């Protein structure tokens, strides 16, 4: 009898734990840092892949971000106008550049 109660309690508590835990978030949700340009990144840089690609590259220098954005636009044909691309680059450098490793 004690064993059954123990198992019931165990089941109950793990259920509670699961419904309370952040593990319930969808795995493709990556929060980006707040800042000017964030919305552009969310709009333009998630058309083909998640922003996880961006977070994986956090800490690279300005030149590398320039190269990456250029690569997306010219090689993968990301439809991003020059003005937005510049703002995206500023956002990436500011929030995910070398100083923010
Ligand atoms: C038109 C589709 C498309 C759009 C839009 C796009 N990407 Fe990509 N991106 C890709 C593809 C395809 C790959 C995978 C290529 C590879 O593995 O080298 C990739 C890979 C990446 C990588 C990892 C590759 C590496 O060299 O480390 C980063 C970082 C990245 N994208 C950033 C961005 C950013 C920032 C934006 C917004 C400015 C963006 N992407 C928009 C298609 C896109």
Any overview of this molecule?
The chain has 101 residues and is mainly α. The protein has one domain: Cytochrome c-like domain (Cytochrome Bc1 Complex, Chain D, domain 2). Helix content is 58%, strand content 0%. Helix 4 packs antiparallel against helix 5. 11% of the residues are buried. The protein binds heme C. Heme C (HEC) binds next to helix 3 and helix 4.
Helix/strand layout:
Elements: H1 2-20, H2 38-44, H3 52-56, H4 62-74, H5 82-96
Helix pairs in contact: 4-5
Bound molecules: heme C.
- Computed structural class: mainly alpha
Total count of strands: 0
CATH topology: Cytochrome Bc1 Complex, Chain D, domain 2
Q: Which CATH architecture would you pick?
A: Orthogonal Bundle
The average pLDDT value, as a whole number, equals: 84
Whole-number radius of gyration? Answer: 21 Å
Percent range for β-strand residues: under 5%
CATH first level = Mainly Alpha
> Which molecules are bound in this entry?
heme C
Q: How many domain units?
A: 1
Structural features:
101 residues, mainly alpha
Describe the structure in brief.
The protein has 101 residues and is mainly α. Helix content is 58%, strand content 0%. The chain is elongated, with a radius of gyration of 21 Å.
